[in-house]
Amino acid sequence: MELKEQINRKKLPVHVAVIMDGNGRWAKRQGFTRVKGHEKGVGAVRDTVEAAAELGIKYMTMYAFSTENWNRPKYEIDALMKLLVRSIHDEMKTLMDNNIRLEAIGDLKSLPVKSQRELKKAIQTTSVNTGLTLILALSYSSRWEIVEAAREIAGKVAAGKLKPEKIDIHTVTASLTTTDFPDPEFLIRTSGEYRISNFLLWQIAYAELYFTPVLWPDFTKEEFFKAILEFQHRERRFGLTSEQINGLEVKKKHKTT
Ligand code: IPE
Ligand code: IPE
Ligand code: MG
């Protein structure tokens, strides 16, 4: 049976997060410049997004550019920003054909004006779509986001609109750039690195983590289906025991989220 057919459509993660890593190493192995790896990576984005839409996954957040990536050589940053504009423009048909709504999180004001414009246009055009919500993390880092949230909350306290003792998990969640989206239940990272690299630290508190040695440009629909199947074989316990999860004798005394 094909991988896709083995997936239980009733047990899909609602939100999948992806750290797309390994473009540079892919290019180096082929004897190309790093930029070629990024170009090839766009195809993997298209395939993965299509695969998620085919399955009926509701949200997917893809880490495309981190705050730390601004420290890369200028020629690589420039190429990545150009590629962003070109890809969004070229992939509009894919987004519309697959009923995909585009969103973005991150310090978007720090992007070149052209990238901001193209992004805004695509977000507006696709806002009518009701299928998969594809969230691009651009100039994003979790620590940046948490600092912004702290600033917003502190501002409300200073203005007398919020009492410090009223601050809870929901206050913080509501101040993050991801406030409109549920937390990811599943995080995929490619290229054999076992780290989170400042991505959605708050939101992945209880996500299942999946690491694959496949370099991002080689990531395919089949690789995505394989990952989803692995997710469906995990037992998510949320601090409870396996017996509680399976025995239905769950009494939530201490609700934390
Ligand atoms: C991921 O690939 C893409 C971005 C971070 C923009 P890399 O460019 O990090 O590729 P490696 O990790 O150097 O192979
Ligand atoms: C993480 O990849 C960021 C993105 C995928 C956009 P990096 O390649 O920048 O991460 P590190 O530096 O290896 O941790
Ligand atoms: Mg990398």
SS-derived structural category: alpha/beta
Overall mean pLDDT stands at 96
Q: What is the CATH C-level name?
A: Alpha Beta
The rough form would be described as globular
The total of helices stands at 10
The CATH homologous superfamily name equals Decaprenyl diphosphate synthase-like
- Helical proportion? 40-55%
Distance between the termini: 38 Å
CATH-defined architecture: 3-Layer(aba) Sandwich
Detailed description of the structure:
α2 packs across α3, α3 runs parallel beside α4 and α4 packs parallel to α6. β3, α6 and β4 form a beta-alpha-beta unit. The protein starts with a helix and ends in a 10-residue tail after the last helix. It has a six-stranded parallel beta sheet, with helices on both faces. The model has no long low-confidence stretch (mean pLDDT 96). It has a single domain, classed as Undecaprenyl pyrophosphate synthetase (3-Layer(aba) Sandwich), CATH 3.40.1180.10. It has 257 residues and is an alpha/beta fold. The relative contact order is 0.18. It has ten helices and six strands. The site of one 3-methylbut-3-enyl trihydrogen diphosphate has 11 residues, from α2.
